[in-house]
Amino acid sequence: MRLPQKEHSIEDAVAQISDGASIMVGGFGVPGTPFNLIAELVRQGQKDLTLVKNDANEAGMGIDHLLANGQVRKLIVTHLGLNGHAIEMMNSGALEVEFCAQGILAERIRAGGAGLAGFISDIGIGTELAEGKQIVSVDGKDFVLETALRTDVALVHAEQCDAYGNLCFAKTARNFNPLMAMAADCVIAESQNCLPIGDLDPDAIHTPGPFVDHVVALKDLHKEYAIVRR
Per-residue confidence of the chain (230 residues) as pLDDT tens digits? Predict the structure, then answer.
C-alpha cells in the first residue's frame, strides 16, 4: 500500500484556512507553539477567527500578532495574564474571551477528539465559570455540563515528523498538541525535522499520521520566517 505524502509548502497549507474558521493552536507558552504557522496566517490575513489556545502568548509573540492584526473575533483560553495587549482588547470589547479552567479546557478538547458530546464536572459550581451552563444533578449532587470542543483546523508544532504525518513532540511541547490533533477537521503540523517514512521509532510517535492532513518542513522555509527553537 502506498501511503499519501502530506508535505506541503507553508503557503499552501495555511491557505486551507478560510475566513471565519475556528482554530486550535497548540502550545503552553513557548513550548509547542507553532510560531511559523501563526506567522504565515498573519501574512495571509484570514479574518473573523475563533482561536482555542491555553494562553495568549506574550505581547509581541505568537497569537498576539493575530490579535494585533485584527484577525481574531473570539479567544477560548485558560488565562491572559502574560499578555497585557489581549487584556486591553478584552476590556475594550474588541475581543470576545471565553475562560476555561486549564484541566477543563484539556478535557473539552479530548472529548471532542473522542467523539463525545461533553462531560460533567463539579469544577466551577457556584462561580462565574458555571454561569449560563447547564447544571446536571447526579445522586443529589450538582455538576456543570461541559460541552466538547472541536474546530475546523488545528495548528501544532512537532519536534519530529515524517511525510505521512506521524508526529513526535519534545518534552513539555507534548501538552495540548496531541489532544488538538484529534479534535479538528484539518490538522496542520510544522516541524524542523521531517524524516522519510519509516525513520521514526513507532514507539516514539505521539500522534499517528491518520490524524494529520498537512506537514510543513521548517528547514525549507524562507529566511523571513523566524524559527523558534524549543
Answer: 577 889 999 999 999 999 999 999 999 999 999 999 999 999 999 999 999 999 999 999 999 999 999 999 999 999 999 999 999 999 999 999 999 999 999 999 999 999 999 999 999 898 888 889 999 999 999 999 999 999 999 999 999 999 999 999 999 899 999 999 999 999 999 999 999 988 999 999 999 999 999 999 987 554 444 444 33
Q: Is the dihedral of CA 44, 148, 159, 204 positive or negative?
A: negative
Distance, in Å, from the CA atom of 171 to the CA atom of 159, rounded to the nearest integer, reads 9
Return all residues near 149 (Cβ < 8 A) that are at least 6 apart. Answer: 24, 52, 76, 105, 108, 109, 111, 112, 183
What is the C-alpha R_g of the chain?
18
Q: Please choose, from the candidates 35, 43, 50, the residue with its C-alpha nearest in 3D space to the C-alpha of residue 11.
A: 43
Nearest one of 53, 43, 36, 5 to 153, comparing CA atoms: 53
